[in-house]
Amino acid sequence: MKIKITYNLIFLIFFSLLGCKKVINVSLKNADVQLVITGEVNNLPGPYKVTVSKSVDFTSVNNFPPVSGAFVTITGNGITDTLEEKEAGNYFTHQLEGKPGERYSLLVSVNGKNYAATSVMPEPVKLDSLTFTLGRDNDIYPIANFQDPEGVDNYYQFIEFADGKKFNNGRGNSVFDDRLSDGRYIKRTLYDDSDDVKPGITLKVQMNCIDKAVFNYLNELSQISGDGGFSSPAPANPDSNISGGALGYFSANTVSSKTVEIH
Q1: How far apart are the C-alpha atoms of 40 and 98, rounded to whole Å?
Q2: What's the start-to-end Cα distance of the chain, in Å?
Q3: Residue 235: is the preceding peptide bond cis (ω within 30°)?
Q4: What angle do CA 148, 149, 152 make, to 5 degrees?
Q5: What's this model's pTM, rounded to 2 decimal places?
Q6: pLDDT tens for residues 218-261?
Q7: Most exposed: 86, 89, 110, 146, by fewest CB within 10 Å?
Q8: pLDDT digits (tens, 9 = 90+) for 17-40
Q9: Beta carbons within 10 angstroms of residue 30's beta carbon
Q10: Cα–Cα distance between 255 and 42 in angstroms, integer?
């Protein structure tokens, strides 16, 4: 599918509502290193991946040291799949299949300490199409169009890719819930604060249906970090759905995506 962007759209109103800015100097203290676990099971064919690494100081480069030798299992659909470490810190399933409505449990054991999480995979919602709007300075913003199911609490995560590469620094990773728009046809503008969306690239937008605990974590994370990414345990941490004191989250979610060429 090819989309041609025309540059005669009305600039977004919110860009005109710019206020005064005040510079505030904040002294941030480094925190103790913590385990970071991120894992996903979805409704697409596996294998599924769990990443185990260590956090870095708030002032450090976002290069998370991988943790090898962990014991990792995911239980669901009546089976327990023991994951294999195929790359340093990256563990992959063998036979697990993701199905909507099923509950999945993650167990990670590192140096004799256990970390656990559960997540229920929601029913899928289809991403119908992508349209676009222009902001100030001709910045291009994609709009995700989809029908929200009525009478169901739905939570969404949007992830953007340019030419197959996920946006850097957590940008292009946002969440949305239907608390104020249950059962409506949604046209969700994705304000990624990035110049990655531009003519000449192939844009993919992936819409995940996630559970409430994962939504709460990602929503808090975006407010703390400002870019949807986590680089360190300072200055504050969102509430993870992983017990045992680890950062990160475990998500059982469904996936729907659209890919367009921007000209």
Answers
A1: 10
A2: 11
A3: yes
A4: 115
A5: 0.81
A6: 999 888 765 444 444 445 678 899 999 999 999 999 999 999 99
A7: 86
A8: 334 444 444 444 455 788 999 999
A9: 13
A10: 7
